[in-house]
Specification:
globular; single chain; alpha/beta; 13 helices; eleven-stranded mixed β-sheet; Rossmann fold; 20% strand
Length: 426
């Protein structure tokens, strides 16, 4: 095999292909961070009433929405659906624990997102309103930026938990704001959302040393953040997608004294990361993995075609990530990843398995939850049957699904992550 093909193979184990489609979801106040093509910026969408779907429409037709407006309406629709469900339960007098749990997990009880104020780091925010600022730290002579969203319920006399959010390869922090919808989840649940920015749009994912100390960046970021807002150091959580998901696990292994729990979307683990684990203390972790994600080796005997993702990278000739070649790049399989974390966290016995409600039959996915261990050592895997290389709950636009695969609308990964995180502390 040529060195060129090997290099491409290693790249595909880390990349998040969402970068070509996610500028659609960028909120307008952050648009300066992206270079969006004029054709993409002018694309208009029409909301499909009674659904969370959208369709592109010719320019000049009525009821058009910009991608940014579409994103906001999608979130508002989720909120309204949750309210309707609650009211129906109350009227029927059957607010059982199961139905309440499902409602809370899928769509959190949050108010429609209020206007966010952009402020300069250190500037006093307006009381009772969420605010957003960009800050930076110096690491090895390089200025490293990050974005911070502070919820409207913030009280400087009360420390708040922090969720660190890491983008995929060739993505950036602003894309994650739009894709994950973590800001409204932050607003409702009163935690601080921090969006990291990787050097050259990537993170040191544990495969090899990249020459960039991203762990030092995170520790410096937390120190700087603590000077700007009152944070709860015992409740800091890390999550990410693809390359960012690999990196979240690097943090969980290398600084487990600082990371109370981790969340991983669309990534397994690098073999080298297993040897980075410091100490034996359990790190609760939750995974959201699609069975039809062409970049995930499931070791289930299937050979998924590399498809449009591979074509976009010029990797069509490789055929499949399941053909055994991925291990040469240090990528371990889904079962091996779960086995590592259940062994480290000392989760014994068989998992508790439940089937999540199929809340959107049109999305082409269903979700199964496997839970190992208990509160202090729990490992949870959400298997998205039919899901692609995507963030569950992300607006279901054909511009994304046509490249990355199906996006589950049955669950909201950001809300479920917070439900998983909120009771954990160091």
């Amino acid at each position: 095999m040529s060195s060129k093909v090997c290099t491409k193979l290693l790249t595909i184990t880390r990349v998040a292909l969402l970068s070509t489609a996610l500028p659609l979801l960028v909120q307008p106040e952050h648009s300066a961070y992206l270079a969006v093509s004029p054709a993409l910026a002018q694309t208009q969408y029409e909301w499909v009433p009674g659904s969370r779907q959208a369709r592109a429409v010719p320019s000049g037709q009525a009821r058009q929405l910009t991608p940014q407006q579409l994103y906001q309406q999608q979130r508002q629709y989720q909120y309204q659906q949750q309210l309707n469900q609650q009211q129906q339960n109350q009227q029927q007098g059957r607010q059982t624990q199961t139905s309440a749990s499902q409602t809370q997990q899928v769509y959190p009880r949050r108010q429609p997102q209020a206007a966010t104020t952009n402020v300069t780091a250190g500037q006093a925010p307006q009381k009772g309103k969420s605010y957003h600022f960009v800050d930076s730290v110096m690491v090895d002579g390089v200025q490293r930026h990050f974005q911070v969203h502070v919820p409207p319920g913030y009280d400087r006399n009360r420390p708040l938990p922090v969720v660190l959010i890491f983008h995929g390869l060739q993505m950036n922090s602003t894309m994650m704001v739009g894709m994950t919808g973590f800001n409204p989840v932050s607003d409702h649940n009163n935690f601080i959302a921090v969006y990291g920015e990787g050097v050259n749009n990537r993170w040191s994912d544990g495969r090899t040393s990249s020459g960039v100390d991203d762990v030092a960046y995170v520790t410096s970021l937390l120190d700087k953040l603590a000077k700007e807002v009152n944070i709860d150091r015992r409740r800091v959580y890390a999550c990410g997608i693809s390359n960012g998901g690999f990196f979240a696990q690097v943090l969980a292994c290398t600084i487990p004294d600082k990371i109370a729990a981790a969340g991983v979307v669309a990534s397994t683990m690098m073999d080298r990361t297993q040897g980075m684990m410091q100490g034996s203390k359990a790190v609760p972790i939750v995974f959201f993995l699609g069975t039809d994600d062409p970049l995930l080796p499931w070791a289930d005997g299937r050979n998924k075609d590399i498809g449009k993702l591979g074509e976009a990278l010029g990797l069509g000739a490789l055929g499949s990530i399941d053909n055994g070649l991925a291990r040469m790049g240090g990528l371990i399989t889904v079962p091996e990843t779960i086995a590592f974390w259940t062994a480290h966290n000392n989760c014994s016995g068989n998992p508790q398995v439940t089937q999540e409600a199929d809340r959107d039959a049109r999305d082409g996915t269903t979700v199964r939850k496997e839970s190992y261990g208990s509160s202090s050592n729990q490992v949870v895997l959400y298997t998205i049957e039919g899901g692609g290389h995507t963030w569950p709950g992300c607006p279901n636009l054909s511009a994304i699904t046509g490249l990355t695969g199906k996006i589950s609308q049955d669950i909201d990964a950001s809300s479920l992550m917070w439900e998983f995180f909120k009771t954990r502390s160091r």
